[in-house]
Every structure is written in C-alpha cells, then in structure tokens.
Amino acid sequence: MRLQSPSGDLREVSLAAGARLGFAVADHGRFCLGHYKVHSASSRDHVLCPARAPAVKGKQCERCFVLDDSRLIHDFHRGGRVPDGLRTYLLQDHWLYVATFAGGASKVGTASHLRKWNRLAEQGAVVARYVARAEDGRVVRLLEDMVTREAGLAQQVRSAAKAEALAGPLPAAALDGINERHAAAVRTLLGQAAVDGSSPEGFSIVDELWVRPAQAAGLCATTARHAYTHPLEQGKHGFGITALSGSNALASLAGTDAAFVVNLGRLAARTIVLGDFASEVPAVQEPLF
Question: Which top-rank group of organisms is this from (predicted)?
C-alpha cells in the first residue's frame, strides 16, 4: 500500500501474508493525489496537487484531473490529441484480455506491454486470458470497443462488486469455464471481423492464460469468510493480512477465528494515521446448511 505524506514523500507498507495493518482515519473527506505527466513508455512524473485540495473527481481535484495525461488515453483511438510523451507510451504494443472475477462477472480490457501482468493483478482478476496483441494503444482500444459492442462484454466491473463476490467466490473450475467461454467467443469475433474487414489492422489473435499472483490464492479459494462491515471511511481499524487480491485483503481479527474481506480501495485519497489499532469483531452469522 502506497502512502503519500503532506510533503509529497512516498512510503510503501507491505501487505504480504502475515503483515499487520493498523490505522485511524483522520478526516472524513478525500483529498487530491495530484496528477501524472507521461514522458515515454516507461517514464512518468507524479506532480503533487499544489493546493492540497479536496478530491471532487475520484482521487483528484478539478485542476489535477484536467492536467492529468492519463485521462487522454481513452480518446486517443477516436482521434483525440495527446502530448508527445503519452503518444510514445501509446505506440508500444498493447494486449487485449478477458478477465473474470470471483462472482463470475467478466470484462474485456487492455494493458500496455510493460504492464501486461500488473494490470490484471491490480484489478483483482481471479482468471484471465489474453486474446489479442495489438501494435499500439489505438488499435487495442478499437478492438475493446468492438468486443463490447458485438459480444456484450463490459469494460468495467465495480470495485464494490469485486469485494462482495470475494465474500463467497465461485469454485475455481466454474470461473475458469466462464472465462474460457468468453475468451473463445472474443477470439471467434476477432477472427471473423478480420476476415470481413470490419476490424482494424495491426493485431494478432493469441491464446494465453494470465498467471495469478500467489498471494491471492487464499481469497480466491471457497473457504468460509465474511464481509468486513466496519466503514473504512471513519474510525480505527487493525487486522492481520492473510491474502491479497487487487485492493481486497483477507483479514484476521484478534478474538475470532473468522476471516473477513476488506476492500482497502475505499481508503484511496483518504488521510490515515498508522498505529497499533485493532478492529472490533463484527457480529456475523455463520451460514446454515
């Protein structure tokens, strides 16, 4: 987990299995995390918000949202103008993938070649397959839009839905089957579109399974767990980390053998103070069979 101090210094807190995380939320609002300037495929600068303003668009104030190079990515394939640095980033190879999450919800998405693996790890996919390799970011986004339009696959799955699904994930075989069927349908669509000329040039169809991070195994298994019911936007929290998938942690609390799914993504852009805090054990009801 990356923390940013008021002065802009960055600190990373390990969330590996066995780590403990304790914190108190110091303010109820979200504050701007600044913006990025992209210089090349592998170089970018993080620019602090000069006003340390409240966040009004996700994790940014209005000014930083407008200045952020990354927001322009989504219009590049529609002819939108981009700075030279971002253009260099977009002209590298990109991958089209189909990802499936714990409850069976699936999406089509894109990843640059340098972030081919990380992109899916950060999103918390349970199963994913790469279905195409494109010569640049324009082509891959045209393919992504075509898949959404023709195959009905969404381009987003809500973070709250991912967390809810991890409280009762489907069996691994079922999720793999769902993902394999979607990926096969997308490859068929891409192949037909290439033959009849309705798809852009500059891509090849691939069939490659994404390798999920080992630390996600405990969350993706069908062992019993509960949703963490304490609001992360306020109060004091503390728990042990036993598994991690994207922004969701499988947590252990002192005083109970029960496991809890905590959506740490809800902490984004919030002000916290690290410390030796502990969460109260939520009242939970074991499922009856």
Answer: Bacteria
